[in-house]
Write a structure and sequence with these properties.
By secondary structure, this protein is an alpha/beta fold. It has 9 helices and 12 strands. It has a 6-stranded mixed beta sheet, sandwiched between helices. A 4-stranded mixed beta sheet has the order 4-3-6-5. A two-stranded antiparallel ribbon has the order 1-2. Strand 11 and strand 12 form a beta hairpin. Helix 1 packs across helix 7, helix 7 packs parallel to helix 8 and helix 8 runs parallel beside helix 9. The longest helix has 14 residues. The N and C termini lie far apart (40 Å).
Amino acid sequence: MKNDPTLLSQSRPNVLRWEAGRAESVRDELVVEEPLEIRVRGQAISVTMRTPGHDEELAAGFLLTENVIAASQDVLKITACERNEEGNLINVQLAPDVQVDFDQLTRHVFASSSCGLCGKASIDAISQHFSPVQSDVKFSPELITTFPERMRQHQATFNTTGGLHAAAIFDSNGKLLVLREDVGRHNAVDKVLGRCLLDRLLPLSQHLLLVSGRLSFEILQKALAGRVPIIAGVSAPSNLAVDFAHRNGQTLIGFLRGSRMNIYTHPHRLGLQT
């Protein structure tokens, strides 16, 4: 799989690479990080630092996980507005019957970006918007252990730069449906959920979300918005993520590496019992 040129910086700086007692000057590949302002009906609601590309998916996934939209028919049009040469502004036109509380939305977004979503109050607030997942889907542990390598094979830009997170959606047959890379792991999740929303694949009640980094509360919350019953990552979950998954019926898998994994909550979806 070839690199997406839009993800790589045009500048390739010289770096001094040291290895085994020897230093040499080499050219390095850098991923792009730029701000994107998301607007709804022309009103700014968020600015996020992201890797350019798939911005319409990012905007759709962000609005899904913020409980603004729930289905593809809620979105009439997503337009990139070239405010400058980077084109870092995107506007989402929603269907007339979609109600948006701009005051509450902007307060929540700017608060969470400045201090982070944290604590019981945040879990309770999310639970008011999204009910626990109910899904009878089953994945075998043996099948799940094949997913990280398959995801890695599609991470062309990461293989070049080492600087991108990835998120991927697999169906119950093990088919990789969509994978996205981004400097922000939350953005990568928003992009795959946004793609699924725009393709009318929601709810994802028969699917698994795999992320390349650690498993935070925000990742679990976004998966809940997409109704994903199984969330797996190659690294560790936080205690808040485990608590959130337990309360919301999500199967949470961490340290998915090689032939091993830790299953923290609801192992019945893997045919296992505690």
